[in-house]
Design brief:
The chain is α/β, with parallel strands linked by helices. It has 11 helices and 9 strands.
């Protein structure tokens, strides 16, 4: 059973919630980063988890890394720690199931990078996002320079990272930094409703789709097409493919009852 002082993992009806719980701002210190890695690995492996919500509570998602902790570190300390830092966020990005960040309040620095590691982002209409590391004399170190540029384009990413400015929810929506905005009280319910769509879905097909998209963005088109072709063919070995196609032929689309195998 997963246990951590500042991260909770709850599973209900095949939807897992990874809840950050380090008030008041959910500062992502080394202990939190290690906890995220462990939680991401657990939901990746659990067969009873089909989708994942990452949530910081109704006040704040995560206001960034723990600057007080980092301020004491030397260059060699950060050389040692940076690998673990990126590994935690990469583990979230590589969860082989649909993931959604439910963003209330601030998602800044490492908090924004954690949201970027999810498949989609649903934010309160009064939320604030950004990569303000430049204001500390450093740059994003948990994937921000890479995931942000892939999401909103290099020019917008450079402007946001160069200035370190805060981005209000309406602008975040307009540039594609978040996918949907809702009233503050609706953030978690909306994210959970989205995740619940996949609780009874074809688990291996969803996994294949996510891997094709994510890996395909890292390679040239021909290689991406080869990855897609291999995954597409492999799904013909699953029971869900048989179920889905049989149901379509007999009843039309949208009636299949998948088993996730």
């Amino acid at each position: 059973m997963f246990e951590h002082p500042h991260i909770r993992l709850d599973v209900e009806e095949r939807v897992a919630t990874i809840r950050l719980d380090r008030p008041p701002m959910n500062a992502l210190d080394a202990q939190m980063q290690d906890g995220l890695l462990a939680a991401a690995n657990e939901v990746s492996e659990r067969a009873d988890v089909r989708a994942v919500v990452v949530y910081g509570g109704d006040k704040v998602f995560a206001a960034g890394a723990d600057v007080k902790e980092m301020a004491q570190w030397s260059y060699t300390d950060m050389v040692d720690r940076s690998t673990a830092l990126q590994a935690a966020f990469t583990a979230v990005a590589r969860i082989p199931k649909p993931t959604v960040a439910a963003i209330s309040g601030y998602a800044l620095g490492g908090g924004c990078e954690l949201a970027l590691a999810c498949d989609i982002r649903i934010a309160a209409d009064n939320a604030t996002l950004g990569q303000p590391e430049i204001l500390l004399g450093v740059i994003p170190g948990a994937g921000g320079t890479q995931r942000l540029s892939r999401l909103v384009g290099p020019s917008r990413a450079k402007e946001l990272i160069f200035t370190g400015r805060f981005v209000p929810a309406d602008e975040a929506l307009s540039i594609g930094l978040v996918d949907r905005t809702v009233l503050p009280d609706d953030v978690y319910p909306a994210a959970r409703d989205w995740a619940a769509k996949f609780a009874d879905g074809p688990a291996y097909a969803l996994r294949a789709a996510k891997e094709c998209i994510d890996r395909g963005l890292e390679v040239d088109l021909d290689t991406g097409l080869a990855i897609e072709r291999q995954h597409f063919a492999s799904l013909f070995a699953t029971a869900d493919r048989t179920t889905g196609m049989t149901s379509f032929v007999e009843n039309g689309p949208g009636h299949a009852r998948f088993e996730g195998r």
